[in-house]
């Protein structure tokens, strides 16, 4: 029992070592952190103003009130802030510069190292979200969650973060096959911003597009938790959406595990 | 072979080939190269076998492109051989990288394992955690390394601001922190000034002597080798040319030694068993083979017959020997 506890301690401590160094890097570059926070704040202010203009004095459009809409864009900006991590940048830079060699020579696996980086980003981003709250309140009159929606919303947000982490890992790991990833990463961020419903909720999209997106994992990252928060998806529908998230998470986590194993083997076999 | 009889590092018939797509010349060369299946195979390591006992300090030498780093990468576990096998402290490195990592420390001179953006000490703290070094032992090793490598002045400096010599000392400390049984040094003194080189050599020497750490060193600096290695493995084109003590290599390749003599008056020397190889600034270089005539006899002979004001013996440097070997290889 004591042995098991000790083993668990060392296991966690090793990972904590990676996480704390990755946090330190973010803290080292403070200006960069401020810039990263400014973007989403501007996004909240501008998107709030944009939707107010689009509503042109109407209180509801297609059964969606202006308050719901501005709350949506506000929360979406915060979710995006939390979800946008530097895994793709980090891993592709390590591969390009050859630093991946020293990473592979560590007694902790490469995938674990990346996950630690993602946890570190999360730890830094959560306080940033708190800083964003007052801006959101002023700019968009953030409404409270629908009755009984807070719990499912938080659960869906965590699942959304996990799904997004898997997607980032999958994009990042392609750098073992293609040496040039910057363009692709940019394309991924633009497309994912749109397809996850971070800019426009799925309910305002043309029917065919909304149903196509319904089949993709990206909507589970931002749209699912937000529609639960706002009561657009409630009761059985909400739990069904969470179920879909769980399914996606299982599939994607499996894919990440497999692809990373292949990537590491490829690096080790081919000497990338 | 029984387990207890096994050497600490055991490489047997290791082969590593690399594939490269052959470049197409002429119009649309780039495009045709892109679609080409025409590959060239090069053998970086060609059936290399050796075994290294615990506590040995071995220089792994060869010209650029001889396959030294490829060998180190395989023994580190970050590269799989095409064929053959190896065991380091009983572990096949590339099959169990993480286990192997706990037994070894590695310094790649051209690359750092330190965290670029963070103060040096942050890298050590993290290594302490991932190698599961208990706190008290961590403090002890840290104190010793800070002391011997003189790290105190820049422990809090971000790695990106360190000079090359400081960074290299930091990298060595990082590789040694968990007290590995094997230390691989891939060109650890490249680009360093004389003092920094000396410091690194001193530490490696102490390590090998005091804690019995087994050292495998690749370098182009023969002073590193003369100072640190009791044994040399010389390779070229992926094959082992020589494996043995440095002294033996010298006598094998350059048996001649030289006696430099200064005469009172310019003299035309004729001695049995020695030849004049050079005359310069009033000094005469006599080349002789100690097998034919012992140095003592030669010196007695000369002093008896000529008026000598000064003389000294010159051993061939390892550098001269290696140069000779590389040259012979090129002309073959």
Q: What keywords describe this structure?
A:
heterodimer; A: 272 residues; mainly alpha; two-stranded antiparallel sheet; B: 332 residues; alpha/beta; Rossmann fold; four-stranded antiparallel beta sheet; 11 helices; 28% strand; globular
Describe the structure.
Chain A has 272 residues and is mainly α. Chain A has one domain. Chain A contains eleven helices and two strands. Chain A has helices spanning 2-28, 30-55, 66-83, 87-97, 100-104, 110-140, 150-173, 182-195, 207-214, 223-229, 235-270, and strands at residues 60-61, 64-65. Chain A has a two-stranded antiparallel ribbon. In chain A, α1 (2-28) packs across α6 (110-140), α2 packs across α6 and α3 (66-83) runs antiparallel to α6 (110-140). Chain A is globular. Chain A starts with a helix and ends with a helix. With 332 residues, chain B is α/β, with parallel strands linked by helices. Chain B has two domains: 3-250, P-loop containing nucleotide triphosphate hydrolases (Rossmann fold), CATH 3.40.50.300; 255-315. Chain B has helices at 29-35, 68-76, 97-103, 120-130, 135-149, 164-176, 194-210, 222-228, 246-253, 295-305, 318-331, and strands spanning 9-21, 39-52, 57-61, 83-88, 104-108, 182-186, 214-218, 231-236, 239-244, 257-263, 274-280, 283-288, 308-314. Chain B has a six-stranded mixed β-sheet, sandwiched between helices. A four-stranded antiparallel β-sheet of chain B has the order 11-12-10-13, with helices on one face. In chain B, a hairpin with a 2-residue loop joins β8 and β9. The longest helix of chain B has 17 residues, at 194-210. Chain B is globular. The A-B interface holds A 10, 13-14, 16-18, 20-21, 24-25, 28-29, 98-99, 101-102, 104-109, 267-269, 271 and B 18, 70, 73, 76-80, 94, 97-99, 101-102, 106, 108, 111-113, 115, 117-118, 122-123, 125-132, 158.
